[in-house]
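A protein record pairs a chain with a discrete description of its three-dimensional fold. The following entry can be read in just this way:
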Amino acid sequence: MMQSKAISRLAGGFALALASTLAGAHTVWLEPLVGTVGGYEMKYGGHGGELETYDSGKIVSIDVYDAGGGSLDYERTDVAGGGNTQLLLPKNAALVAIHFDNGIWTRDPMGRSVNKPLSAVPGATAATNALKYHKTVLQWSPLVTRELGQRFEVLPLSDSQPRAGQPMQVKVLLDGKPLSGVKLGRGEEGDAGETGADGIATFVPEAGFNGLWAGKRFAVDDPEFTELSYEYLFGFEAL
């Protein structure tokens, strides 16, 4: 599947699909820039289906690969004032991987969430370190089943493009090891299954664009936060 064709197919229903997918999640994802060839913008949000601005400095990495797994150069434009980061990808781009560190969010005594560590909010007792990861598949190839080294990573077990209504299996890894108890869903509620001891779960895609969400939280003993949150959005088109 050539990238230009992928963009034209994704663009039509992309925003609507993501709004449904992310009704409860708080994730990052790529959305095609309509009217461009290879143009995308990175969006963030999802709580209540709302988009949010973000600091581009929280983008840890954006990596673009060809179908053979080779790293590709691309153009990146960070928009001042909280605008969405834009990417211009080469024609042979097959997959994009993103790591976004949303930082530490602490609940203050008034119940408000502030982007500060626990020690910086007097009277606070709970804080979450929120890490977000993402992949967008533009071309299906054996690359999609390979580990790319993301700390929290979702991998389909087959390199064939999924078909709507036909179950697909995915494996979730943490530090390269299978992770059990990871919720899957089309939203943060995790209503589409859970990984077993082998880190594998089944997901049933819908026609068109799918945003497979995966997430798990861990209680931690740290002076700056009490919880570590991992979230993932694996974006792909089903036939």
Remarks:
- Residues 3-238 form one domain.
